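SEVERITY: medium
COMPONENT: batch folding queue
REPORTER: lab tech (J.R.)

DESCRIPTION
The queue accepted two submissions in a row. Attaching both inputs and their returned structure tokens so the on-call engineer can compare them side by side.

ATTACHMENT 1
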Amino acid sequence: MKLQNQIETLSTHKNPAAIVNVAMVPQRSPFRYPGGKTWLVPLIRRWLKDRLSPVSELIEPFAGGAIVGLTAGFESLAARVTLIERDPQVAAVWRSILNGDSDWLADRISTFELSKNSIRQALGSRQQSDREKAFTTILRNRVQRGGILASGAGVMKAGENGRGIQSRWYPETLRRRILAIAGIKDRFRFFEGDGIEFIRQNAHRRDVAFFIDPPYTVAGRRLYTYSDVDHDGLFQLATTIAGDFLMTYDDVGEIRRVAAKYHFDTEPVAMKNTHHAKMTELLIGRNLDWARFRSPSDQVFPEFAAQTSRG
């Protein structure tokens, strides 16, 4: 199996660059999500641990693949995790896993005989229960190019290593991930709806932390069905948050200007994908000094990263 993203991350701050250890990041999400945050997990651990009192609740208002929320739940980095997702397809998956249909979904995936005809038949179904919608969403996410769920994305042809549609369909792995999440479902709650409105309703709470990862400005329309976000309005809303928050964005001039407008701290983090393209994402918060501190353990060995970065 070829990795989805062989990722190396490093700080581009003026301090000497240090590589973040992604080799120690377990894969927990059933999604292979464009813009997924597996590479950020070591920094998320530090962010949630670097405080005087534990976070009572981590709120992820743009859940998507929810790797940050899942990490917080599995590793007890917050007493409770709340996921919010606007996309009804993605919402159906989280609702099924967390609200009682996890066994059915896991079994449906593990017994599905993958072929071009079976994919066409499953994705062509119009009358679906919520759990059937969850299954077809996972299927679409796994067999469409790049894991893109937005309209217009086609089913992969060559796939990885020439394996075609089979190259991202790991039924037993998906089964294990789904059942593992369901096994600790009491640590989570899920809402389908507007993440920005959820922030607004909970901004007064000092006991929570928000991880805010909205659709990005450059590729959002291509990658996500619900990509329309008032970015300036979101930053303005972040100024009203009484507790802590961490935002991630594409590192573009527009976002840097908005962050400066609201006097937020920024820290660029560079990463290298499987095509060896160097990309930079931006961390945004009130004070990111914790993200600039590097310890001797912040090292990565690419061969191990390659083995552990499979989506």
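ATTACHMENT 2
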Amino acid sequence: MQTIASLKEGDWVEETYLVISKQVATAKNGVTYLSIKLADKTGEIDGRLWDNADEIAGKFEREDFVRIKGMASNYQGTIQIKMKMLEKVDDSKVDLANFLESAPRNTDEMVQELKGIASSISNNYLRQLLTAFLDDTIFMESFKRTPAAKTLHHNYISGLLEHVVELVSLVRVVGKYFPSVDMNLLIAGAFLHDIGKVRELTVKKSIEYTTEGRLLGHISLGYEMICEKINSLPGFPDDLAMLLKHIMLSHHGEYEYGSPKRPKIREAMIINYMDDLSAKINNFEATLRKEQVAEGEWTGFNKMHDRYLFRHPINKTVSRQLEDTNSKKNMSSKQNQNEYDITTNSSGELPLDI
């Protein structure tokens, strides 16, 4: 397949892509043309067709698959396709694996890892809350499939689950360096911070925002979901509920990034920074992969990082470690349950070296 990420100026393109936007427009000279955005699992690209634009536009809709023929060209520093031909392709003739990327880790193993961590939380109320979500069949079916974002990071099937597992792992490591941190609250907050995305995003042929996702956003939706679950648990402490809600409302860190509140407790600060780290490193790695950047070369300008990114030469030892990463991750759910134990000592305090 001629993937979008691999297209270069001057390439002749004959391939099937997904239409994610469509518009018939008029140029300054009065000529009507068809403007569409095409996608596969490696990226998106603009397409332009100048001949018989109105007629051809009437033969397909957004979310249809189309086979196009045309030339990849450079327009104001961006590659687009000048199309000569476009025809609709029946869904049954398309391999969806070319359009819907999935998380590299096994979904069921990631769920088991989360269940192991949740069951080890020593705070009874937080353990009940996480278990209530894990036992919610409707929620879990969405949670296991939902991406973490439309474009920026973990933007593939099961991406949200992978991001949450990653974030929980990060906060457990960082939290042990700060004895004053409530590890139970930290882990629960990391688990729950993005749950609203199961209602904000939907996956059909591509990742799209739901109507309530566009109108309310995942922070507001997640806040509602936490409140509903907490209200179903008798005796859940008000002060503990307040701290969890604060983590939900502040995990984007700043007002300009969509947070109604900024982090004002230790646990919220750690989650904010580690959430940002997880997202940015995932985006960094995905950019190198999709742009097929070789060692010693640079990416194109990256909007998320607001800069060009460099892939430095890597030594053989680190290379071998990277090759082993996935196999080690896949074994994580089979490790002894004691790895996840979070118990208190005789004074009721959490141990540092968990």
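NOTES FROM REPORTER
The beta strands are 12-26, 32-40, 43-49, 65-75, 78-89, 201-203, 207-209, 297-298, 310-311.
No errors were logged for either attachment.
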